[in-house]
Amino acid sequence: MIDLRSDTVTTPDDDMRNAAATADVGDDVYGEDPTVNELETRAAEAVGKEAALYVPSGTMGNQIAARVHTDRGQEVLADRKSHVVKYELGGFAQHADLQVRMLETDRGVPTPEQVDEATVAEDLHRPGTGLLCLENTHNARGGLAIDPEKIAAAADAARERDVPVHLDGARVFNAATALDVPVSDIVDPVDSVMFCLSKGLGAPIGSMLAGSEEFVEEARRTRKLFGGGMRQAGIVAGPGLEALENVDDLAADHENARLLADGLSELEGFDVQEPETNIVLADVSETGLDGEAVLERCRERDVLATAFGPTTVRFCTHRDVDRENVERALERLVAEF
Ligand SMILES: *Cc1c(COP(=O)(O)O)cnc(C)c1O
């Protein structure tokens, strides 16, 4: 089986399993797990923020950020196709009593004019805007690597109106790799950033939420509130430290995605979006089949992908598939389509 459903399917390698087995541990709710403490320090350094918090999932990281940055009843600005809007169960409403104002954007990032226009000041009738949430890379739009200047322009517009900015950077290291910029260039203009250790970086579990000391202190309380306070979490933070060493490997995933996209675009009825990172989107409407039927045919050939909308299929490269696997997957699909 060649599993291209997601970069979350990576399994821990020997270094990670070793790190789990040998991690120094303590009770992290008491702040006494040295491995978690090291991971939080190293993660903060990696993105150039004052502090960071280890959280069980990217979703929890985004939800904590929204809760910490806002007051009950405020609005959040977010792209219509962002993960926080589409795939987090409407959590902003459930966990922070927020209303989302969705923006129709180019490449998933609003212009400063859009931010300005959509921001509302609190008055008798309006709740006030409490947060701008950006995403990089942009998952649902095909793993787009958003330029730091675009992030900075949107963030500056929000901050001029005293609206804080959170970046859903689940794959922010993929963005930095693709754009060949330090990740801090992307993250400097925002107040907080979440990134996943458990995706392309290959850790079994966990994400990081980074920002100012003050933000992280409050985020730590909110993590406890959400039931995310963990005890001897060094067992999973150890592999997380190994994952931070894997940033340089992401370029290979991107190269494999380009190879995959080239091959897929040769298939009858596949309209393939040029990949910028490790995600390849194919519109399969011209095959005469819907996305689910295409996936079923892929599965029969031992290739797995996911449906992204009725006629769009997503393929995702990662460290557990190499160039040879991609070539083999393409050979199988050429025989099928
Ligand atoms: C995967 C993902 C998340 C959530 O991460 P989980 O660890 O799966 O909860 C958030 N945002 C984006 C853009 C993602 O791709």
TrEMBL record:
<dbReference type="InterPro" id="IPR023603">
    <property type="entry name" value="Low_specificity_L-TA-like"/>
</dbReference>
<dbReference type="InterPro" id="IPR015422">
    <property type="entry name" value="PyrdxlP-dep_Trfase_small"/>
</dbReference>
<feature type="domain" description="Aromatic amino acid beta-eliminating lyase/threonine aldolase">
    <location>
        <begin position="3"/>
        <end position="286"/>
    </location>
</feature>
<dbReference type="InterPro" id="IPR001597">
    <property type="entry name" value="ArAA_b-elim_lyase/Thr_aldolase"/>
</dbReference>
<protein>
    <submittedName>
        <fullName>Threonine aldolase</fullName>
        <ecNumber>4.1.2.5</ecNumber>
    </submittedName>
</protein>
<dbReference type="Pfam" id="PF01212">
    <property type="entry name" value="Beta_elim_lyase"/>
</dbReference>
<keyword id="KW-0456">Lyase</keyword>
<dbReference type="GO" id="GO:0008732">
    <property type="term" value="F:L-allo-threonine aldolase activity"/>
</dbReference>
<dbReference type="GO" id="GO:0005829">
    <property type="term" value="C:cytosol"/>
</dbReference>
<dbReference type="InterPro" id="IPR015421">
    <property type="entry name" value="PyrdxlP-dep_Trfase_major"/>
</dbReference>
<dbReference type="GO" id="GO:0006567">
    <property type="term" value="P:L-threonine catabolic process"/>
</dbReference>
<keyword id="KW-0663">Pyridoxal phosphate</keyword>
<feature type="modified residue" description="N6-(pyridoxal phosphate)lysine">
    <location>
        <position position="199"/>
    </location>
</feature>
<comment type="similarity">
    <text>Belongs to the threonine aldolase family.</text>
</comment>
<dbReference type="InterPro" id="IPR015424">
    <property type="entry name" value="PyrdxlP-dep_Trfase"/>
</dbReference>
<dbReference type="GO" id="GO:0006545">
    <property type="term" value="P:glycine biosynthetic process"/>
</dbReference>
